[in-house]
Amino acid sequence: MTPAPPAPGPPRPSSASPPGAAPRHREGERGPRVAGEAAERGTERAAQKATHDEGKAQRNGELGDRLRQVLVVGEIVDAPPLPCGGAGQWVVTPSEGVRRGTRRILEMLESLLALGGLVLLRDSVEWEGRSLLKALIKKSALCGEQVHILGCEVSEEEFREGFDSNINSRLVYHDLFRDPLNWSETGETLPGGPLEALRALCRRTHPGPVTIALDSLSWLLLHLPCTTLCQTLHTLSHQDSCRGDSSPGEQVHVLGLLHEELHGPGPLGVLSSLAQTEVTLSGAMGQASAHVLYRRPQQRPTHQTQWFSILPDFSLELQGGPPLEPQPYPDPRVPSMDPTTHLTFNLRLSKKEREAKDSLTLPFQFSSEKQQALLCPGLGQATSHIFYEPDAYDDLDQEDPDDDLDV
Amino acid sequence: MFPELNNLLNTTPDQTEQGKLTLLCDAKTDGSFLVHHFLSFYLKANCKVCFVALIQSFSHYNIVGQKLGVSLTTARECGQLVFLEGLKSAVDVFFRPQEEPHPLQFLREANSGNLQPLYEFVQEALKPMDSGEAAWRCPVLLVDDLSVLLSLGVGAVAVLDFIHYCRATVCREWKGNVVALVHDSGDAEDEENDILLNGLGHQSHLILRAEGLATGFCKDVHGQLRILWRRPSEPTAQRDRSLTYQYKIQDKNVSFFAKGMSPAVL
């Protein structure tokens, strides 16, 4: 939604903004709306808006201040759409935030969930996305949402592993793992197979916000026709609008894990066009990264790249960037030891040894004593002789004494 | 069983992990030494083993097993090993009444594309005995190899479903292990094989990938082995979850060394 120009009139505090201003405030948390700085680095719209705002501010100083206060609620500068790279990270401008003491970083998980609708997590064999999915589920559960999981790839015990009981109690696991094709005929299958299970999720009329996690979309895509799946997904992620219930608190989050190597470009393209937020996982040097594409309605899509690691309790730790070179991580199993401890020779000198070493005159050093010794040859030198007795068979050529040297 | 490989994987026959799927994969080289390793490893670990052997005969595996110190004949006689010899029993499919279920039933049906009979065979073979006649440690399914199934006309999704069910039963329910070999043709045209390989990669906990050397054949270095741990159980494992070693296959052993550190080079 295009932000409306600020309404003239008495300024209001941000918490009590009129409904028309609320979306702009929400967007300000993510958007390039730092009033003083936007003209340099923001998008075109931000620049226009900033000049517009500054014009207002000149006309009415107080209103300008108020506006500025509204606009800098989130001190996050959005980078313009970038190709993959490390530059599109959340940057916190220190200026206004520090002064007001409300410096906030919009957390990655929150921003992934902020748009609602379908969040697509694309992972690969090397960079698996289930941990991130579980991190998002934990986040939703902590917000008090009911979480439904359609589990096709891992068992319920394995999926619930690592969550504490508080979160586990909020998870409803629909088990498609144990017997999805009804081979065992134990009657434990979900009736109607995967498609009916999905449709049952659509019909769920649970009051309050709900999160639906599909683990994984790849399994569903391999077993269901693509069109059927996409239609069901669309119904699933637009439940709120169907019910005419548009308040943001009531929105439905659908989290879909997709193993992207398993599908051709066609299904991948269809699914990604259905998604509001698309996360592609990759990494370098043992550090995972997420390339996020946000599709806000009626806005240009924005890209961000975030380096992160997921802790064992499924909380997220943001990292600055990839390690520049492979660092030799200390192996916890091998205690670090000094390589110079068990040597057969000595690398260190005691003080006494060092003094002895310093006072030693080396053979090539020229000193006055040496000079004297050379200039005044002593007695021993004068009396030395060389006695040489040639062998009987020595073939000494007087004209060429080096004949035998073969040169 | 190759002790050096055990060291790299941090396991011994006395303490095996349970409930894991291990994917063996070979590209531009022969990765069957990994199959022989795991076969002898689990027999030594006193596990109940079901071996679905589709590319070699029983005597072949038996001879290699004897070099590695296990006797497949003895293991089969005492009930520790259930051996499905694909080469022989493929013929049986055609000479028995159709009503009788056969693990390789898909060979006979033109468009079934369903490996349910094979799964039922595995399930029957590894089902825990009620009476503790011989208490085997944990059930293990070994498949050599899954790519053959694709060549026999089964779809990749059907093979993935078969492994899915084996995982649900053997790994989850009975706390056993599944080990399967898949060839990586390295051919972008072979979509089915890619789906199988990547689909299994996403399901597995550990991937061992044997690759031929990029520089070609070498007398002293036969290839390199990439070890990739997925779903790290401990936080520190995140850092060294991928390792690469080079190896040389000897008569009764395989020696592993760091890249470029072959004794022949140094």
Automatic annotation (TrEMBL), chain A:
Gene name as annotated: ELP5
Ranges for region Disordered: 1-62
Molecular function as annotated in GO: tRNA binding
Cytoplasm among keywords: yes
Top-level taxon of origin: Eukaryota
GO biological process assignments: tRNA wobble uridine modification
Signal sequence, renumbered to the chain: none
Pathway where this protein functions: tRNA modification; 5-methoxycarbonylmethyl-2-thiouridine-tRNA biosynthesis
Keyword Electron transport found: no
Biased composition (Pro residues): 1-13
Keywords: Cytoplasm, Nucleus, tRNA processing
Listed name of the protein: Elongator complex protein 5
Skewed-composition ranges (Basic and acidic residues): 24-62
Subcellular localization(s) per the UniProt record: Cytoplasm; Nucleus
An example Gene Ontology CC term for this record: cytosol
Predominant location category: cytoplasm
A matching Pfam family: Elong_Iki1
Similarity remark: Belongs to the ELP5 family.
Automatic annotation (TrEMBL), chain B:
Pfam family, one: ELP6
GO terms under cellular component: cytosol; elongator holoenzyme complex; nucleus
Annotated keywords: Cytoplasm, Nucleus, tRNA processing
Compartments it resides in: Cytoplasm; Nucleus
CDD domains documented for this protein: Elp6
UniProt entry tagged with the keyword Cytoplasm: yes
One GO BP: translation
Pathway(s) annotated for this protein in UniProt: tRNA modification; 5-methoxycarbonylmethyl-2-thiouridine-tRNA biosynthesis
Family, as annotated: Belongs to the ELP6 family.
Subunit structure: Component of the elongator complex which consists of ELP1, ELP2, ELP3, ELP4, ELP5 and ELP6.
Its job: Component of the elongator complex which is required for multiple tRNA modifications, including mcm5U (5-methoxycarbonylmethyl uridine), mcm5s2U (5-methoxycarbonylmethyl-2-thiouridine), and ncm5U (5-carbamoylmethyl uridine). The elongator complex catalyzes formation of carboxymethyluridine in the wobble base at position 34 in tRNAs. Involved in cell migration.
Protein name: Elongator complex protein 6
Phylogenetic placement of the source organism: Eukaryota, Metazoa, Chordata, Craniata, Vertebrata
